[in-house]
Amino acid sequence: MHSTDRLPVRSTPQNQPIKRHNTARYYAHRVRESLTTRVSKTLCIIFLSLLLVAGIILFVLYLSLRPHRPRIFIHEFSIPALAQPNGFENAEIIFNVTARNSNQHVGIYFDSVEGSVYYKNQQVGATPLADTFFQEPKTTTILHATLSGATLTVNSRRWMEFMHDRGQGKVGFRLEIKSTIRFQVSTWD
């Protein structure tokens, strides 16, 4: 009676109802929980987005208003007395430097600028270059000085060292510019 080409069919006498694993209260709780979760996630996203935007704005402001140091350039440095055999009596050092404020919106206050000249790490002379002054953004200020007489502390032995080094073709001097600087952020109009 049974043929091998047919599959056995199992039939149940009654249709069984679908089993319910969870109650209606469980599903209501899940819907309520997901609603509060969605609201809290939305609030967190809004807060973190505002925090990110504020951080980007502060970073851009920092980059645009960050002060840069003034750039100092030597344009002329000469000791004319080195060319004369008896130059020790009328020795003088002449130099011109420029201070460049490359900031876009930041001015610089210079407090009593002083220039010092060194030879072999020994100070040869010092002089005040300028009193307190304010430098506007994107400007260049020229500072000129001459060291001679009381501002130049060179003795005859040191002058002979200058002449000896000049005979060898190279005399090494170091010029230091010292000042206390303060920055002022200008306002937008």
From TrEMBL:
Regions that span the bilayer: 45-65
Q: Which Pfam families match?
A: LEA_2
The listed locations are: Membrane
Residue ranges of the Late embryogenesis abundant protein LEA-2 subgroup domain?
A: 97-188
UniProt main location, coarse: membrane
InterPro entries named among the record's database cross-references: LEA_2, NDR1-like
What UniProt keywords apply to this chain's record, in alphabetical order?
Membrane, Transmembrane, Transmembrane helix
Q: Please indicate if the UniProt record lists Flavoprotein as a keyword.
A: no
Topology class, membrane: Single-pass membrane protein
Q: Spell out the GO cellular component terms annotated for this protein, sorted alphabetically and separated by semicolons.
A: plasma membrane; plasmodesma
Reply yes or no: does the keyword Nuclease apply: no
An individual GO BP term? defense response to other organism
| Stated name of the protein | Late embryogenesis abundant protein LEA-2 subgroup domain-containing protein
Please name the source species. Citrus sinensis
